[in-house]
Design goal:
Strand order of the largest sheet: 5-2-3-6-9
Strand content: 25-35%
Order of helices and strands: HEHEEEHEHEEEHEE
Number of helices: 5
Number of strands: 10
Distance between the termini: 29 Å
């Protein structure tokens, strides 16, 4: 995981560019995305041969009317009440997919917590701390970045809190 800032490579995404610009240590993993896969996150974990608890999905929710990013392990699901509490809100619901895509600049199944068009409040599930590295979408289906949970939290200004259910 020694990839550092350098020339933008062909196929780079805004997430990879943001990591390079920050000088963060990360690695990129790609796999052939199957459009028929029932779950983007589970597909990524299986294709990469990783524990689903180490691969995180990026979900966009509305907390008190404001779009908010939740990053949770693919082995679990988002606890909307816990997300609202973590970011100081009262009510949370999943965001309209079109609004999530428009605001982040990414397509569903490829939304990255990094390099979004508009930086949104972000919450990272506390289970990330139990791993040396985690994988999140690199901004395209079939492309993941692996980095330390501390770097992910710092680069997204995330609140780290228990927001996932097993």
């Amino acid at each position: 995981m020694a990839r550092k800032a350098g020339k933008q490579q062909a196929g780079s995404t805004p997430a990879i560019v943001a990591l390079e610009k920050a000088g963060a240590a990360f690695s990129v993993h790609s796999y052939d995305h199957d459009p028929a896969a029932p779950s983007y996150g589970s597909e990524a974990a299986e294709a990469l041969g990783r524990d689903p608890a180490q691969v995180f999905k990026t979900l966009v929710a509305e907390v008190d009317g404001a779009l908010t990013v939740a990053v949770v392990p693919v082995s679990g699901s988002l606890d909307l009440k816990a997300l609202a509490a973590a970011v100081g809100g009262k009510r949370a619901a999943m965001a309209d997919p079109a609004a999530a895509e428009r605001t982040t600049g990414y397509v569903r199944g490829g939304i990255s917590p990094l390099g979004q068009r508009k930086k949104l409040p972000t919450a990272l599930d506390a289970s990330a701390r139990s791993h040396a590295t985690v994988c999140v979408s690199a901004g395209r289906r079939g492309l993941e970045v692996e980095l330390s949970p501390a770097d992910l939290a710092a680069l997204t200004d995330a609140v780290v809190a228990p927001i996932a259910r097993a």
